[in-house]
Amino acid sequence: MTSTSGVLYVVATPIGNLGDITERAKHILQSVSLIAAEDTRHTGRLLQHLGITNKLISLHDHNERQKASFFVEKLSKGNDLALVSDAGTPLISDPGYFLVREVRAAGLKVVPIPGACALISALSASGLATDSFVFEGFLAAKTTARQKQLALLKNEPRTMVFYESTHRILDSLNDMSNVLGEDRLATVARELTKTFETINTDSLKNLIRWMEEDSDQKRGEFVVIVSGNPNSLTSEESEADRLVDIISTKLPLAQATSLTAEITGERKKTLYQRALLRRDES
Ligand code: SAM
What we know:
Elements: E1 7-11, H1 23-31, E2 34-37, H2 40-50, E3 56-58, H3 64-76, E4 81-84, H4 97-105, E5 109-113, H5 118-126, E6 133-138, H6 143-152, E7 159-164, H7 169-180, E8 185-190, E9 198-203, H8 204-213, E10 222-226, H9 235-247, H10 253-264, H11 268-281
Parallel strand pairs: 1-4, 1-5, 2-3, 2-4, 6-7
Antiparallel strand pairs: 7-10, 8-9, 8-10
The structure holds S-adenosylmethionine.
The site of S-adenosylmethionine (SAM) has 23 residues, from helix 5, strand 7 and strand 10.
């Protein structure tokens, strides 16, 4: 990187309410040489609203790889550039990953201009645990693939965040209920920052009923947040349980748990109680 190289600014834009644009974002969008936008017409309307005139060039999932070198060259020649998507923070279920990776690989500077992001907005108002969460983006469109993805998340202890569209919201909630359990606490955050913003936290079963009874609730853009599985085990704990199960086919349970406790360092009593629970459930 030379002192004369330009900077790539990754600029967050509103997810509905145009009042959520930041002062810094406005300043950057006005001052850079060029704005790379997911949809130039869409961003053109935002710029018009902000009274900004600047050059726009399209950068979307289908041309990002071809165009990256063009942007790297522009930056190397000292031009500052901005990257925006249609809504919220670029790269978050939006284009830009390849470009940012290439720009950084070329030793050039990337600066985030933070702002709206649907997942963070939804999480902050959900009332579900926020200390540790996992963002899953969009689930698969086809039912079988979607159910497989959810099955892998059944024992996820962290809060899970998904994006969903109006076409699939009810199918996805039904799959979540079937695979993760109908009593799992979840949040549906719909049309955030817009006129019909609705944020509802309840069991998956009740959320489905509510949406079926009021079809307006199926309209718009959604973030779905599902609480983690409180009973899930760490990989070490699962491995210890596996040992207990194998050893107890040859020895009495008390001996199997005591031996496993010695091997793994887990408490014998805890191993024993979990083994009894597994026996009750089977
Ligand atoms: N980059 C964006 C961000 O920072 O949130 C997300 C882009 S992704 C292509 C679009 C998805 O984000 C929508 O389908 C929806 O799941 C979610 N989303 C975007 N705006 C939203 C809003 N106002 N309310 C609820 N969900 C929204």
